[in-house]
Specification:
single chain; about 270 residues; alpha/beta; Rossmann fold; three-stranded mixed beta sheet; 9 helices; about 35% helix
Length: about 270
């Protein structure tokens, strides 16, 4: 599907399929790939009849492997691209000199950039970094905190974009280990710790804070998350279902909402702390 048509198509139809649909915007292609995972044969036939495409049975020999040498990067905004291996990073960095290449191999931690909650955060990170670049100091004087880091893709991308100090926390030991491995693979230094956001005092008051969590946790941890944002700083919340947005907004009503974007039933909101 062309990039020009995908947003309109997703607004009209994508909300019906929720988390069973993945949109892959591959940087080197002019078209966007949409994968849908039906529950039944009847649902599969109906989808194909309405929207076209082709059907594949998910056996090991047809499943998409982003680590394959021919796999293309996923693009997020104007500067960020995600690949699965260091070899791919070297290959594509020569062909996309304007892109910040992040290496995130497929693994056990959530956050390769395919799911829309992570993709929206990466696009907002790209936008925020561009806004900061307009300042004389750029990102070099701004700290970044990633709450619920998963694979660490946001934290690593932030560090590569020039943020001064980047801290990431997650309550999953696997995620913390994966982040450390991914940071090493990308040649960047990210401070990380296995901590529960409901119990952990903010390690820094950051100029930019990301929290890609379930809505219930965003609401419960609102006081802790808001405390981590410095005055005048930016807070990006994701992992929110459209029908839960009002409750999340209420929990963060003392902040100034800057923008709100949605894809396939998921919402990402950007706030500024007055």
């Amino acid at each position: 599907m062309s990039r020009e048509k995908v947003d309109q198509w997703m607004d009209e139809h994508g909300w019906r399929y929720g988390e069973r649909m993945i949109v892959s915007d591959e940087a080197a292609l002019r078209r966007v790939r949409v994968d849908f995972f039906p529950r039944t044969k009847a649902e599969e036939k109906k989808f194909l009849a309405e929207h076209g495409g082709r059907s594949l049975e998910l056996t090991p020999d047809v499943w998409w492997h982003p680590e394959n040498p021919g796999a293309r990067p996923l693009a997020f905004g104007k500067k960020i691209a995600v690949v699965a291996t260091a070899d791919q990073a070297r290959w594509w960095s020569k062909r996309m000199p304007g892109r910040t290449i992040v290496v995130i191999g497929p693994g056990m931690a959530f956050g390769t950039g395919q799911h829309e909650t992570t993709a929206m955060c990466l696009r907002q990170l790209d936008k925020i970094a561009a806004e900061l670049e307009k300042r004389e100091e750029g990102c070099r004087v701004v700290d970044c905190l990633d709450v619920g880091t998963g694979s660490g893709v946001l934290a690593i991308a932030a560090k590569k974009l020039g943020f001064r100090r980047v801290v990431a926390i997650d309550n999953d030991a696997v995620a913390v280990q994966v982040l450390r491995e991914n940071a090493l693979l990308n040649g960047v230094e990210v401070e990380c710790a296995m901590e529960d956001v409901l119990k952990y005092p903010a390690p820094i008051r950051a100029g930019v804070v990301f929290a890609n969590l379930f809505s219930g946790l965003l609401i419960k941890a609102a006081r802790k998350i808001k405390a981590a944002v410095c005055k005048g700083g930016v807070l990006v919340l994701s992992g929110i279902r459209e029908d839960q947005l009002a409750e999340v907004r209420e929990a963060y009503r003392d902040l100034l909402e800057q923008r709100c974007v949605s894809k396939r039933g998921w919402v990402c909101v950007v706030f500024k702390k007055p």
